Amino acid sequence: MTKFTSFSSRVIWMQIDNVDTDQIIPARFLKTISKEGLGDQLFYDWRYDAQGQPRADFVLNHPLAKGVQILLTGDNFGCGSSREHAPWALTQFGFRAVISTSFADIFKQNALKNSLLPIVVSPDVHDLLSQMVAENPFLKLRVDLAAQRLMLPSGQGIKFPVDPFAKHCLLEGIDELDYVLQQEAAIAAYESEGGSPLDTLGAEQG
Amino acid sequence: MGTPRTIIEKIWDAHVVSQPEGAPALLYIDLQLVHEVTSPQAFDGLRARGLKVRRPDRTFGTVDHSTPTLTRLLPIADPIAAAQVAKLEANCTEFGIPFFDFQHQNQGVVHVIGPENGLTQPGMTVVCGDSHTATHGAFGALAFGIGTSEVEMVLASQCLLQRPSQSFRVQVDGALGAGVSAKDVILALIARIGIGGGTGCVFEFRGSAIRALSMDERMTVCNMSIEAGARAGLIAPDDVTYEYLAGRTYAPKGVAWDQALARWRQLPTDEGAIYNREISIDAAGLEPMITFGTNPGMGMPISGVVPDPAGVADAAERDALIKALKYMDLEPGKPLAGKPINVVFIGSCTNGRIADLRAAAGVLKGRKVNPGVRMLVVPGSQPVKRQAEAEGLDRIFRDAGAEWREAGCSMCIAMNGDQLQPGQYSVSTSNRNFEGRQGKGGRTFLASPLTAAASAVAGAVADVRTLA
After folding, report:
1. How many beta-carbon pairs under 8 angstroms link A with B?
2. Which of A90, A116, A201, A204 best tests the B interface by mutation, with the highest count of B CBs <10 A?
3. How far apart, in whole angstroms, are the C-alpha atoms of residue A185 and residue A201?
4. Is residue B142 helix, strand or coil?
5. CATH number of the domain at B7-162, please?
6. Could you tell me the pTM of the whole model?
7. Each residue of B307-354: pLDDT tens digit?
8. Contact B355, B384 (CB under 8 A)
9. Partner A, chain B 98-137, Cβ-Cβ below 8 Å
10. Domain with CATH 3.30.499.10 in chain B
11. Would you state the pLDDT for residue A200?
12. Chain A contact for B342, CB < 8 A?
């Protein structure tokens, strides 16, 4: 995994609450057996009309969306399914951070494993950011994960929470599976001691 | 005696392999279920790292999402779906994982076959790359959906990195009225707390109304925990659970069964255990529920009227409602009952079990599906299909004019060709009414099998309690 570094970017504002994973990437695109090519399918049914032409009124089709790395969106982003295709599609489009007032649990975990930073802000801060982007679409924010701060052009920093372990993995480029595999001894010990005292699967063999 | 614990804490504590300070716990997973959609990239990851599946004996595969339900006699026509199904079969063979292929006599929806074969047992940790894994919580298991990176992690290590969730007690007491079912209980909860209302939590469903439910019905309740944002939902095991489990293929036998039973009986939440959050629902006050909008929280009693955005104070909520009603093409202030529909879908991991088919058939017996409606009945598994046929339910469905299909996820997720056409309305027993969920441009009203069957007869959204 590459290390997560701080970056500055313009912001795309998609003011919709409860954006579900079926919108982020519709289920019919999940028949793929690869992780690739999903960026073009991101928000497909909102992004393209019945003829497959880009809808002019959808934010990701705006010229300003080119190269943008921060998505500012409504509450409970990523609700619905567990499909990791959602963060794959978002990162392949170019996003590195999503700002919302809350995220669905599974989406949040999936995002962190793909170096897509879910940034939770208070409703007041969310309102402020929305207003700033509406007034100045060229506004750039700086995401500083090490300091856990969203830096405004004024130099003001807005603190955001991050799980300390996830932060460490992102900043150091630590692959979580590698970390788990290093605990082989503990896993083997747990298994050799009989595993969970509640586990009854396979009991008929024992 | 230690501190009183909830069943959630008991299962958690028993599965912690290690708990380094400041880091998430390393949690042991007793069972992982895999299906064709969320696993191929995980198996590729194993190969790229040169890893094996650590415990193929704690892993089980089936195909369900991309498989056609019209016939199993022909090869899968969609080449992309066929490749995905073949990939799972190849991966399971390569890594030594037991699985039900497309032709297997016990193939079915992953959350139907786990319980059906006795793989799901009380006190276990169960994961699957699928958000409806909460279904298995009906057995008093801690079961939750994970992403593909985590699927790979569990395949490789049989462990997950987890932080504990908050506990959320959902107390449902009283008797459900006629025409009101398990589906209505969970839809009512989601309507009350919203689709983000359970975020960060695991539900424990308790109370006399829950105890009175069969295992099939309990699975319906737990299944939709994720639709309120909860990581999982579970119900402490009792005699109903044990009766269901006894004799199933993977359930303990003989002395092992008696030992298991003794352990399972220790699982229910201790007297005095503390929950982080609580809510109470009066079962007797519930009506059949139906959704009107584009997320499962946008639901109401079937006698209600579509809410008016003008009456919503919160701006974001108002905008969401306006957007939803525009997509659904519904007028505020009007009832949904009587709204003409095009399709009825009975099936899915929410309502594709034998109890659901019996409920729907009970309504359809001696009646006809309205000529304007296409009705699909899709059993959750091949064993459910055989059982239904042994009881003559297939005949009731066919005689009424419904399509009797092969097992699979079908029109719940519309990946296999079973889908709505743009603009069509369905009454569906599935779990999600998101935009395009049942086919691009399709519009979904979520409801129980009873409501869905009554609506098929009426040709419009109908209240089963007043069906002519």
Report:
1. 221
2. A201
3. 23
4. strand
5. 3.30.499.10
6. 0.97
7. 999 999 998 899 999 999 999 999 999 999 999 999 999 999 999 999
8. no
9. 119, 121-125, 129-131
10. 7-162, 289-466
11. 85
12. no
